[in-house]
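User: Reviewer 2 asked us to show a designed sequence for the structure in our supplementary figure. I'm pasting the structure tokens here. Could you produce the per-position amino acids so we can include them in the response letter?
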């Protein structure tokens, strides 16, 4: 069962948060002594943050097993999924920069009463998560970073993305055509990748002329400028809570950089998933769960 909760960001952008509810788990959950008022869900809170071009529903598989013992919320971040796009005439740095994304996550944690929260982020969402953990340690109990680099990517990366976006054969005649292109025909795909195709098909919607992305490609380029040009090692080093860095063997985060991230983190741990790429949490759910559960169980065991 999934419930939509609308949250208004500080700048007025409407955000769609999705709470994944497991009725049996809710019935069994009771307030911890002295911690929660009657009627409030006292289970440990989890906030799931998707990556660039993603959406909250990409976390559905993860949310199902997390929801057995935790209160789980996934956020459609601004400009993604069912959340609003910032108006095109608004200052892009204010509306689509790092500060806005971190402030949105902070607002959701506070308004929905998720603290002390475990933040689980993929790619862009992982960067948002560790920036929030660095700035508001009082809100964050633990952190999972999934396939996101701390180093700047460089201007060539942005140009590569601009070229890639121009190659998209929009509009797609059907959602299946989008699935096939991203999973097989996209020049970036070295071999058929059904998981990648499914991932992108899920962020398409039916427009009057065919199937188009839920997001603005122009806005996505603006969003990623902050990690194209800027490194984020300093904020990573400020994260004090237990943190798990997870990478796929064929993902975008290299092993050497991932291990350096773990070294920089005061309480860092490392996990690697074989035969997985960038979308490891989405198309390798069993291995993803096996990587996360020991870490999350350790957090739960350490709780007072």
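Assistant: Here is a per-position design you can include in the supplement:
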């Amino acid at each position: 069962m999934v419930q939509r909760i609308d949250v208004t960001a500080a700048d007025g952008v409407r955000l769609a948060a999705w709470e994944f509810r497991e009725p049996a788990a809710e019935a069994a959950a009771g307030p911890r002594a002295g911690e929660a008022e009657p009627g409030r869900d006292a289970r440990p809170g989890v906030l799931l943050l998707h990556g660039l071009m993603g959406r909250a529903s990409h976390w559905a598989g993860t949310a199902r097993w997390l929801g057995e013992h935790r209160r789980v919320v996934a956020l459609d971040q601004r400009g993604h999924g069912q959340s609003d796009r910032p108006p095109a005439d608004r200052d892009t740095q204010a509306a689509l920069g790092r500060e806005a994304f971190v402030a949105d996550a902070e607002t959701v944690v506070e308004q929905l009463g998720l603290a002390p929260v475990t933040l689980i982020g993929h790619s862009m969402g992982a960067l948002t998560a560790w920036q929030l953990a660095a700035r508001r340690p009082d809100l964050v109990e633990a952190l999972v970073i999934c396939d996101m680099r701390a180093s700047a990517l460089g201007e060539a990366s942005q140009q590569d993305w601009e070229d890639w976006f121009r190659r998209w054969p929009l509009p797609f005649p059907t959602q299946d055509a989008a699935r096939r292109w991203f999973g097989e025909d996209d020049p970036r795909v070295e071999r058929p990748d059904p998981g990648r195709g499914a991932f992108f098909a899920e962020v398409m919607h039916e427009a009057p002329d065919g199937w188009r992305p839920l997001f603005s490609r122009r806005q996505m380029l603006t969003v990623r400028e902050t990690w194209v040009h800027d490194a984020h090692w300093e904020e990573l080093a400020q994260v004090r809570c237990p943190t798990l860095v997870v990478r796929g063997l064929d993902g975008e985060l290299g092993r050497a950089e991932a291990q350096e991230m773990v070294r920089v983190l005061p309480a860092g741990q490392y996990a690697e998933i074989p035969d997985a790429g960038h979308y490891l949490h989405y198309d390798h759910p069993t291995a993803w769960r096996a990587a996360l559960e020991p870490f999350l169980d350790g957090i739960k065991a350490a709780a007072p």
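For the response letter, you might also mention the following. The chain is about 40% helix and 20% strand. The longest helix spans residues 285-302.
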